[in-house]
Amino acid sequence: MNSQIALIQNIDALLPQTQCGLCGHRDGCLPYAKSIAEGEAANKCVPGGQPVADALANLLGRERLTAEASVWPIQSDGRPQRMKAVIREDECIGCTKCINACPVDAILGSGKLMHSILTDLCTGCELCIPPCPVDCIDLVEDVKPVPTDAERMSEQKDLRQRYYAHIQREELRRLHRKGPVVRAEIDTALFAQFSQQTDAVPEIQMVEKADHPAVTHDAKTTIELAKLRTQIKKLEKQLSVREDANKRAQLAQLQQQLQHLQGEA
Ligand code: SF4
Ligand code: SF4
Ligand code: SF4
User: Fold this and answer.
1) Domain 4Fe-4S ferredoxin-type, which positions (predicted)?
2) Would you say the CB of residue 15 lies under 6 angstroms from ligand 1?
3) Mean pLDDT for each 10-residue chunk of the chain (265 residues)?
């Protein structure tokens, strides 16, 4: 691994992985980590607060700067209060707009059905709130005890993995997406490039959109494609009810197989 990638990785390891974009980097923590490595000030992570700004100054041997202020009060660990989003489910119209906006896939639901948030996974990033047309998502204080350093590292690792899985899925869906795109397109190329240089995150593969996607398949390929699509639909349905890491991994694998077969055919 080259030293610049190692530096970005070390910076990223200190960032909360909320992927909220409040540092000014719409696509989340990694683009900010890259920009810090290239010289940007290291005090702009709002959810990280002063502890993250100080840890970054220490890592980089830079002057200590006052962290960007949060609208939330400061917790006992010096960081802004952790928040969680909650959907007022009786008001939800099931429009699904919040689902794509969530960088860590913490929202469950499907078209015209009530949606709910997996509270344990929600980071309080607020990205689901603006797209909601009926304004039925509230932010509430996270009442769980402030995490220990070890718990925080483990949580960050999990959020990072979930974000990469989210990016890969969005990249695959880009080809077939019919509905409106709620979140702006993520700069997938940056994440793909980074993921190829480290084993610490799942590899992200770019998908090329054909100018003329109409293709004819031989009978065997057509059957194989139909089988894959059925398996994918079944898994998506199961995952919309209950999250499961193995099924999620299986889904990503099937989607890649489908993509590969479509590309070959
Ligand atoms: S958690 Fe911090 S570094 Fe990550 S996107 Fe939000 S403000 Fe930026
Ligand atoms: S549910 Fe909303 S606030 Fe919670 S992580 Fe997802 S987008 Fe962010
Ligand atoms: S955006 Fe709002 S109304 Fe639409 S599914 Fe999400 S919570 Fe329900």
Assistant:
1) 83-112, 113-142
2) yes
3) 87 96 94 97 98 98 96 95 93 89 86 75 93 93 93 94 88 66 67 84 75 57 81 82 85 87 66
